[in-house]
């Protein structure tokens, strides 16, 4: 039997990138999926491609009433909610802290922290009543180590990681689990969006982003290869399903080892350089 047979899932930020792939994988595993995002054309198209088991709801996660209506749609249509994936997010802003615009900072927190909070709150209410459910938040390696994204984004993702733990201990007695997945660098449109490109045009740039990342990943990521949306979806699928039934409050890093440390080759090259310098 398919691993999510008959389960009901909501995925925010499912109009492109990681969220779109999670929705596809969930549908292939037998779930009814409600896709959410702000772009209606893309959302309806993606839901239609998944067949009758998928619908799209327009939702800005920073607006609590939108998220409440999104969860309400899933429950009204399917009678329950088993999986909530709080994945929606946008790029960071690269200004220095000394120049940071507080309105920009507040907006980033509204999407990446309040947006996740809204999802946990409204999915959590339904799941507490059911006494079951799995909530997965998409965080980031940038929430664990500094210097890989804007300070607003990195701070917000760090908050999302701790919110995951706080909600997990809050909801555990109701048999509701809350975990997160922290992607490393995944080629999606988010990077071109950060450079100001139109959202739909940006989504088409994923492959060129992969090329642009290569030199940086070679020196920073212990495992060779590019982290793909498939890799994130596989981790989210495991956290969504019964195989992880006693896992809560945890973060699963899918980053090729970047948050574990530097690749051995980088350290070796530096030690050799140091030895040559000291012996000359
Ligand atoms: N790609 C990476 O390297 C990477 C690394 C670490 C973490 N992440 C995280 O992974 C998640 C997905 O990003 P991605 O790389 O797949 O980028 P993406 O392709 O740009 O997808 C972002 C999704 O979030 C939606 N979204 C943005 N703001 C929203 C809002 N206020 N309300 C509702 N939906 C919103 C977008 O849809 P609409 O435009 O239709 O609203 C889109 O579906 C984000 O949380 C991101 O921070 C990505």
From TrEMBL:
Residues 257-280 are annotated as: Disordered. Keywords: Oxidoreductase. GO terms for molecular function: oxidoreductase activity. The keyword Oxidoreductase applies. Residues 7-188 form the Ketoreductase domain. Coiled coil: none annotated. SUPFAM superfamilies: NAD(P)-binding Rossmann-fold domains. Pfam families: adh_short_C2 (PF13561). InterPro entries: KR_dom, NAD(P)-bd_dom_sf, Sc_DH/Rdtase_CS, SDR_fam. PANTHER family: SHORT-CHAIN DEHYDROGENASE REDUCTASE, SHORT-CHAIN DEHYDROGENASE_REDUCTASE FAMILY PROTEIN. Belongs to the short-chain dehydrogenases/reductases (SDR) family. This is 2,5-dichloro-2,5-cyclohexadiene-1,4-diol dehydrogenase. It comes from Streptomyces rubellomurinus (strain ATCC 31215).
């Amino acid at each position: 039997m398919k691993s999510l047979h008959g389960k009901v899932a909501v995925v925010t930020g499912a109009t492109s990138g990681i969220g779109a792939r999670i929705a596809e994988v969930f549908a292939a595993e037998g779930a009814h999926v409600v896709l959410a995002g702000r772009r209606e054309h893309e959302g309806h198209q993606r839901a239609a491609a998944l067949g009758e088991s998928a619908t799209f709801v327009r939702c800005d996660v920073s607006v609590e009433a939108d998220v409440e209506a999104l969860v309400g749609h899933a429950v009204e249509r399917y009678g329950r909610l088993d999986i909530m994936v709080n994945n929606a997010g946008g790029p960071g802003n690269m200004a220095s802290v000394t120049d940071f615009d507080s309105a920009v900072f507040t907006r980033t927190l509204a999407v990446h922290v309040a947006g996740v909070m809204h999802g946990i709150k409204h999915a959590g209410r339904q799941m507490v009543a059911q006494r079951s459910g799995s909530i997965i938040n998409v965080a980031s390696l940038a929430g664990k180590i500094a210097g890989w994204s804007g300070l607003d984004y990195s701070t917000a993702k760090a908050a999302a990681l701790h919110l995951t733990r706080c909600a997990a201990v809050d909801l555990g007695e109701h048999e509701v689990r809350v975990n997160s997945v922290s992607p490393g660098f995944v080629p999606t449109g988010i990077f071109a969006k950060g450079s100001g490109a139109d959202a739909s045009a940006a989504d088409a740039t994923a492959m060129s982003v992969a090329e642009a990342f290569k030199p940086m990943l070679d020196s920073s990521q212990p495992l060779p290869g590019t982290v793909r949306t498939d890799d994130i979806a596989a981790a989210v699928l495991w956290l969504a399903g019964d195989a992880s039934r006693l896992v809560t409050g945890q973060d699963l890093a899918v980053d090729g080892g970047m948050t574990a440390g530097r690749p051995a080759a980088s350290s070796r090259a530096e030690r050799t350089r140091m030895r040559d310098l000291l012996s000359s």
